[in-house]
Amino acid sequence: MYQPLSNQQLIDVANEFGTPVYIYHAEKIAEQYNKLKDAFKNHPTRFFYACKALTNINILKYLKSLGASVDCVSIHEVQLALRAGFAPDDILYTPNCVDFNEIVEAQQLGVNINIDNISILEQFGNRFGSGYPVCIRINPHIEAGGNYKISTGHIDSKFGISIHQLRHIERVVKTTKLHVKGLHMHTGSEIKDVDVFLRGLDVMFEIARHFEQLEFIDMGSGFKVPYKEGDPETDVKTLGEKLTTAVKEFEAEYNRTLEVWFEPGKYLVSESGYFVVKANVIKQTPATVFVGVNSGFNHLIRPMFYDAYHRIANISNTNGAERIYTIVGNICETDTFAWDRVLNEVREGDFLAFYNAGAYGFEMSSNFNSRLKPAEVMVKDGKAFLIRERDTFDDLLRNQVEVL
Questions:
Q1: Which of the residues 51, 97, 135, 332 is marked catalytic?
Q2: Residues 290-301, buried b or exposed e (16+ Cβ, 10 A)?
Q3: C-alpha–C-alpha distance, residues 347 and 354, integer Å
Q4: Residue 376 has pLDDT above 70, yes or no
Q5: Is the pLDDT of residue 148 over 50?
Q6: Which domains does the chain have, with CATH numbers?
Q7: Is 97 assigned a catalytic role?
Q8: pTM of the model
């Protein structure tokens, strides 16, 4: 039975590897993956880990060991997936606004290709005809997700080909003799209501009737994980039951079995992640008590970028009196992780832990202010493994060319 990492385990890692540090608990990733497998066990379903959430090669290898496939959005993610040992058929490449040469490179690597632009679809058809099957990404015009910035299915989204352009798609397919083997949609992230997926599925069924050789329907992802106490989580068990019933009914009409594909990213790795920082200073102003930590939005940008909530705890002083703090970083800009949070008394030198930090944490980090990127650690079977070294000063200069 999975047990979260204890405060002492987090402190031990922080003491051994320093702070700031990202820590990922392998067994939580396995628990999330197995939840999905169990929820969709009554119909052929494949799960492609959306690796943009966290691309450390050890995470990729671990998910491969669990049986996952992988979803990539750049040719370099494809190359990472191949390096991690994924077979080309277990890689789905879903680019957006990339140069056509990058798509040709993916074709040469033999991976599944998902096209979301009529211009690219036509270029691909003219180049490869029926010789290389593709998937087409549809924009279903269903807005979903916890934040407009991460909603991808609305009418103004740059992602996917509009359902209203179906006739244009058909003309391109017929003219170039393209072999369309899959249809794809993704409406956004943080989807609480399983009916959003079912509405999208109805759209996919309608479009599928126009293509006779489909092998799969890809529903994207967007499964919500709880960030706050009491937050809802996508009910994947209910979704699995309802989706299986709907797909089997359609298959009877379509006259062939269709695999269902999903691309979970945050759902698999978010809750596995902890971000541990050190309290540098306690600063009291006339209105606020700040805890200034040895990190900033250069390491965890989600609160500033998405107004995202991360639970924060003082893991060094769990019995201290509760007080209200605003937690800020050391970047020379407004750099606020959380306003008016109740924490056990924070003393300079205490360790604070950010929870649900496995997705889009390190992956969106930078060297802004010439600050060093943190280390990454994986805890597996109770043992901590360093899986990325902390930056050094030399890393800041590594690709600079001194000409003066």
A1: 332
A2: ebbbbbbbbbbb
A3: 17
A4: yes
A5: no
A6: 55-264 (3.20.20.10), 270-397 (2.40.37.10)
A7: no
A8: 0.95
